[in-house]
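[recover] target loaded
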């Protein structure tokens, strides 16, 4: 892969007080790293979730748009590999680190997402296990700019021939509106945060997510035909369908272990303390107590 680093300098500065004197310090630079995956497909990393940029004859399709304030740096990054405008955004799910950059885009840019994702974006529900308050909602403040303008329920096809993009909703997992985005001509899929990295995911029950249904959804995604490489929600490197199947097995084992603990009368605290990533899952992150606890709580809620 050819890797470029794009530095988008920020003009704005923040005022801070030190003792009795006020001084001005430049905001941190916003860096987006660009990996070329194919002649017309790029992975843009940094500033939140991974973004895919698919260059078509009509313009650029972006999958996910990063954190608040990263919309313009993202558009600047696109200009380093094409002079075509961004015409379409596809959101893999509702979370602000994958959607909020698009509020900075021109109002002519179409936004596509699952119908549930549009609903969650409007509701601004807190992310379970991560936030105590609502998600930021710059879309409302911008008069609706950045909200999905087109939605789907099960599947949707955008474009034709070598520029065809397939969108699949396969069930509840990270949220209730997760979309898997497939570029068939390139045999690449963007899995969003249903497969964020080799780690326990957020099971965001506040936005339709499910621990109990998670592994089944992953298995359906792994069975989609014509995929060799997978862009993950946050991992820097691409994975494979075999990795996705392993991740489904990992989640299923976690859920089964938690359910067995509840059925044996163990408390949430006891189940959380007992969980260790099985050694067979090589390269997986060490358990972090807050994430384990949040996921255990979700599974306890879903298990009679």
């Amino acid at each position: 892969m050819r890797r470029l680093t794009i530095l988008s300098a920020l003009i704005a500065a923040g005022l801070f007080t030190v003792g009795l004197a006020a001084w001005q310090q430049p905001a941190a630079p916003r860096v987006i790293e660009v990996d070329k995956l194919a002649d017309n497909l790029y992975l843009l990393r940094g500033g939140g979730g991974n973004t895919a940029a698919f260059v078509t004859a009509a313009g650029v399709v972006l999958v996910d748009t990063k954190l608040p304030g990263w919309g313009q740096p993202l558009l600047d990054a696109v200009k380093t590999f094409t002079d075509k405008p961004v015409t379409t955004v596809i959101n893999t799910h509702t979370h602000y680190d994958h959607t909020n950059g698009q509020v900075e885009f021109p109002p002519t840019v179409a936004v596509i997402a699952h119908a549930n994702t549009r609903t969650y974006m409007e509701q601004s529900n807190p992310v379970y296990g991560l936030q105590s308050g609502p998600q930021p909602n710059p879309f409302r403040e911008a008069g609706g700019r950045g909200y999905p303008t087109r939605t789907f329920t099960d599947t949707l096809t955008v474009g034709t021939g070598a520029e065809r993009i397939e969108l699949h909703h396969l069930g509840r997992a990270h949220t209730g509106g997760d979309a898997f985005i497939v570029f068939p001509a390139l045999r690449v899929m963007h899995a969003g945060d249903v497969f964020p990295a080799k780690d326990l995911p957020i099971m965001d029950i506040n936005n339709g997510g499910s621990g109990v249904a998670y592994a089944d959804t992953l298995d359906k995604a792994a069975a989609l035909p014509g995929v060799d490489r997978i862009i993950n929600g946050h991992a820097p490197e691409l994975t494979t369908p075999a990795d996705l199947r392993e991740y489904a097995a990992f989640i299923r084992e976690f859920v089964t272990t938690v359910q067995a603990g509840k059925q044996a009368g163990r408390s949430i605290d006891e189940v959380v303390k007992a969980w260790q990533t099985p050694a067979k899952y090589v390269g997986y992150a060490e358990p972090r107590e807050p994430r384990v606890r949040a996921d255990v709580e979700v599974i306890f809620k879903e298990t009679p």
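[recover] notes: The mean pLDDT is 92.
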